[in-house]
Amino acid sequence: MFNTRNDASAHANDGNAPTAPTHPVLDELKGKNNYNPTDFDLTAPSARFFVIKSYSEDDIHRSIKYEIWCSTEHGNKRLDQAYREREGNGAIFLFFSVNGSGHFCGMAQMVSHVDYNANSSVWSQDKWKGQFKVQNVYIYCIYTCI
């Protein structure tokens, strides 16, 4: 489902291969958290999958850094219900995309229910209420998203 190789690894090293730009925070997190595993089981019996559309590229980056996410009120309710229905019986996977980008830039697993009382000051807008924890699995094309 995800090609975990960057463009540079898909070409012979002839000196003309494209290289992905680096971002120090993401490089550190990728090294520490083992993102983009080559052996991740995507068959995931009983899992549910959701597409998360973000208004802000910065919010995707902050989600990766702080391992949290917050959706709209309606989105939070749907995700929380799905998480509680699957708790212990299947995972909830989130595919992230920035509005208008035309591609996905990551996949994470939802690892907690929505805490409707929690607020975070990390988001680009203060209108988002509540939050839940995520465990990032794939960070793909993130350098073109940020």
Automatic annotation (TrEMBL):
<dbReference type="GO" id="GO:0061157">
    <property type="term" value="P:mRNA destabilization"/>
</dbReference>
<dbReference type="GO" id="GO:0005737">
    <property type="term" value="C:cytoplasm"/>
</dbReference>
<feature type="domain" description="YTH">
    <location>
        <begin position="47"/>
        <end position="146"/>
    </location>
</feature>
<dbReference type="GO" id="GO:0003729">
    <property type="term" value="F:mRNA binding"/>
</dbReference>
<dbReference type="GO" id="GO:1990247">
    <property type="term" value="F:N6-methyladenosine-containing RNA reader activity"/>
</dbReference>
<protein>
    <recommendedName>
        <fullName>YTH domain-containing protein</fullName>
    </recommendedName>
</protein>
<dbReference type="Pfam" id="PF04146">
    <property type="entry name" value="YTH"/>
</dbReference>
<feature type="region of interest" description="Disordered">
    <location>
        <begin position="1"/>
        <end position="30"/>
    </location>
</feature>
<dbReference type="InterPro" id="IPR045168">
    <property type="entry name" value="YTH_prot"/>
</dbReference>
<dbReference type="InterPro" id="IPR007275">
    <property type="entry name" value="YTH_domain"/>
</dbReference>
